[in-house]
Amino acid sequence: MGAIFRPGICVLCFAALSMLLSQNVRHDSMLEGVPSGKTRVLDLSYAISDKLVPWPGDAKFFEATVNATIEKNGYFTRSFWMLEHYGTHLDAPAHFPPGKTTVDQIAVKQLFGPAVVIDVRAESGKDADYRLPAGRVEEWEKRHGRIPEGAIVLLRTGWASRWPDVQKYRNQDAAGKMHFPGFSTEAAKLMIERKVSGLGCDTLSIDYGASEDFAVHHLSLGAGLYHLENLADLSELPETGAFLIVAPIKLEGGSGGPVRVFALLP
Ligand SMILES: [Zn+2]
Questions:
Q1: How far is the CA of 46 from the centre of ligand 1 (A)?
Q2: 71-129 residue pLDDT tens
Q3: How far is CA 113 from the centre of its chain?
Q4: How far apart are CA 230 and CA 249, in angstroms?
Q5: Which long-range contacts (CB under 8 A, 24 or more apart) does 19-23 make?
Q6: Are the C-beta atoms of 147 and 154 separated by less than 8 Å?
Q7: How close is the Cα of 125 to the center of ligand 1, in Å?
Q8: Burial of 1 (0-12, 13-18, 19+ CB in 10 A)
């Protein structure tokens, strides 16, 4: 029996090893190809201004003031003020559970990782209260293999097409409750099991809009993951094969902050 199966196992081992090696080689050459333009890079962050969609309830969210002009001072500078959770931003683990990592303390290695893209545009188009079920993640894994440790999982709902229309993006009902899709706690539990680095979405929040308890926030931030919210259009990202570089502002003690997210395309 063993003699019969051993060559099969060797072939499998070799296939797995060469897949791993080719993935590494691919990601290495992807980085090298950036300056020459051989590797395409998507910028998944919105430019910051006072025209973005804020979370409801804050009267003030961004302000920029000119401090010096070329004409008057010979140089140009501004100062700015903004909420930590405004525009494309990162939620540090400390955003919800007490005593957790602040934005400046997130391990650098957690900010680089393969992108796992879960496309729920069809489901979200039919149901604005859609929550990604764990089964949909398992279905992704059937097609692409197990979600690797250190991956950054992005939920592609298509909501970016509504940006920056406040009405359409928040999608509030008469009572003020928002309606946009998000992750379910079951899906979040699975991501924690897979030891992913972070979760991201093209909506205002990782939790669906109508959430009152922010259960996914408590769960995944509590497990040390970070969140990327209000990511720009994800439509050009493949379901697997892209590599993400996540660069949040290094704000001491911050609950989160603006983030620049780059996707290197295969
Ligand atoms: Zn946030």
A1: 15
A2: 999 999 999 999 999 999 999 999 998 888 999 999 999 999 999 999 999 999 999 99
A3: 11
A4: 16
A5: 23/114
A6: no
A7: 23
A8: exposed
